[in-house]
Amino acid sequence: MSNTPEAQLKLLLHGHDTVECCYYLQASSPGQGLDFELLATQREALRQSKSRDPLPVTLGGMELLLQRYGSSSGFPIVLKNADLEIECGEFNDPSFYVTFRSEALWSEGVFALHERFLEWAKSLGFVEYRQETLSRVDFTFDYHLPEIDFDEDNFVTVSAKDSKYRSNQKAQGFYFGMSDAMLRVYDKVAEIREKSLKVWFFELWGRESEVWRIEWQVRKDMLRRFGIRTYADLTDQQGDLLRYLATEHDTLRIKTEDSNRSRWPLHALWIDLQEQVKQFNAQGIHRVVDPKAVASERRARIAISIYGNLKQFAALDCVCSGQPAITKSWALRRLQQQLDWLHDTVMWQAEVEKRIKLIALGQ
User: Fold this and answer.
1) Which of the residue ranges 48-52, 78-82, 112-116, 295-299 would you say has the lowest mean pLDDT?
2) Helix (H) or strand (E) holding 185
3) Hey, how many other C-beta atoms are within 10 angstroms of the C-beta on 96?
4) pLDDT > 70: percent of the chain
5) What is the per-residue pLDDT across 125-177, written as a single tens digit (0 to 9) for each?
6) What is the pLDDT of residues 116-136, one digit of tens each?
7) How far is CA 306 from CA 270, 303, 313, 341, in A?
8) Are 64 and 361 a contacting pair, CB within 8 Å?
9) Local structure of residue 195 (DSSP, 8 states)
10) What angle do CA 198, 221, 105 make, to 5 degrees?
């Protein structure tokens, strides 16, 4: 039997974590819409300059970063900010492919972001010639789990592919499927600390440990099976889709001697999940996230990197001078001399201000 009492399970948060959508827009009249020729010229100039930084642009009152590359799916123009990524092209069909980012989804919700994007497009002079079509929706359920008493063999799934992620001999994630519906069950705290740096989740959860995420990444073919093409469809049909995913597509069970794994009893976690899904009739919980927490985490990572490089600098300085190992304070003095020689006051101000703008726009 499971060693995880139901009383210890607690759903902390649920909602959408990534949403990708095709928009079919055209200029309402000549001179309206985006100046794709100018954007292409700016992108090419950026590429020719060999700059690694994107170009800040303001379009329709929205600040965005013009990337120096097109998208792998054939869109010539890629624009990003902290809330979304826009792939677009004058002769592409669909004309816009938009990815709404995690922080914006949790703070505003997918339906509000969709309306905001359409208002932005309308302000530029675009009109819809066809309704939007959803290409990907990630559904997530974050649980407080004090103990993990299951492994990959506890899952009964229709997916043929599976994998397991371990760190320090400890399981941190189980992954099933590769195409239209992929299930991930993983240690979200470890993923934040090691990869995504989305530390603002700690505030949303009200804790910083023992949180595992159940996440389905659902793509177009599966969405269509449940009649989900537009955001209106998502409102009406996501409950049916989730009930299928949590009861027929994937389940977590308690191992027994029965050779028929589908007869194994459901794990307490999955019993609670199925109960939550029965009530799923909205887009999740929306709260304000703190961008300063992300900046603080990035700053800490840079400090760790600088500290490691300072040791290397000290070692090289000792080799060059023939002196024994120097202290941190002395290494900082020697480094300061090198930095003073490199420093340009005007360029420093301009570069720092540029980086502030890039951070604010999600770079």
Assistant:
1) 295-299
2) strand 181-187
3) 22
4) 93
5) 999 999 999 999 999 999 999 999 999 999 999 988 888 888 877 888 999 98
6) 999 999 999 999 999 999 999
7) 45, 5, 10, 19
8) yes
9) I
10) 25
Q: Where are the domains of the chain?
A: 1-34+90-289, 291-360
Token duo for residue 320 = 């060059």
Report the distance separating Cα 308 and Cα 336, nearest Å.
Answer: 16
- 286: helix, strand or coil: coil
Q: Which amino acid is at 317?
A: D
pTM exceeds 0.85 for this model: no
| Angle, vertex CA 283, rays to CA 94 and CA 79, nearest 5 | 35
How far is the C-alpha of 354 from the C-alpha of 340, rounded, in Å?
21
Q: How far apart are CA 207 and CA 211, in angstroms?
A: 8
Query: Is the preceding peptide bond at 94 cis, omega within 30 degrees of 0?
Result: yes
How many C-beta neighbours within 10 Å does residue 281 have?
9
For 177-188, what is each residue's pLDDT tens digit? 888 899 999 999
Segment among 35-39, 65-69, 169-173, 202-206 with least mean pLDDT: 169-173
CA distance 360 to 229: 32
Angstrom distance (rounded) from CA 343 to CA 7 = 59
Q: Please list the alpha-helical segments (H only) found in the chain.
A: 36-48, 102-108, 110-124, 188-191, 200-205, 220-225, 231-244, 268-278, 291-321, 328-342, 345-360
Residue 181 near residue 218, CB atoms below 8 Å: yes
- Extract the tokens encoding 6: 């139901």
Residue 279 DSSP code: T
